Amino acid sequence: MWKSILGGDEDQQDNILDDQEGLCAISPLQRVYGFAACMVSGVVCMFLCFIVFAKPIKFGLLFTFGNLLAVGSTAFLIGPRHQMTVMLDPGRVVATSLYIGCVAFALICALWIHNKILTVLAIICEVFALIWYTSSYIPFARRMISNVTIHLFDTEI
């Protein structure tokens, strides 16, 4: 009796640890639901920001929050630790840094500078950084984007 109260029964302790780990795990269907909920919430925030376009603080916050929700939604599918590992891959670290820098720049323009023109420019930069970041997940997408910009603007990214 005392052995089980004081924690001497190792089999029982293993079962308790297994149960606690099971509480944090979510099923594949729940992962898809979480992904869909975050993605839809992000897209809704990004579209709602155009209602408050005249107010740079609300515009910048809504758009950036929606953008982060949409990007972060993939953490439900692959897990947050794996997503961070993938984001910091050597081939993707520049795109990730550029995206995070543009997000920070947009928030600074909206929260501290309070300039509508700078906020809109920061949001445009954020969109292009998101496109570049997202294209790093698609094979040959960056090369295709570079070829299109070469043909359209006679310059290379």
Automatic annotation (TrEMBL):
UniProtKB keywords: Membrane, Protein transport, Transmembrane, Transmembrane helix, Transport
Listed InterPro entries: Vesicle_transpt_Got1/SFT2 (IPR007305), Vesicle_transpt_SFT2 (IPR011691)
Membrane topology: Multi-pass membrane protein
Transmembrane segments: 32-53, 59-79, 91-113, 119-140
GO biological process, any: protein transport
Recorded GO CC terms: cytoplasm; endomembrane system; membrane
A Pfam match: Got1
Subcellular location: Membrane
Sequence similarity: Belongs to the SFT2 family.
Function summary: May be involved in fusion of retrograde transport vesicles derived from an endocytic compartment with the Golgi complex.
Annotated protein name in UniProt: Vesicle transport protein
Upper lineage: Eukaryota, Viridiplantae, Streptophyta, Embryophyta, Tracheophyta
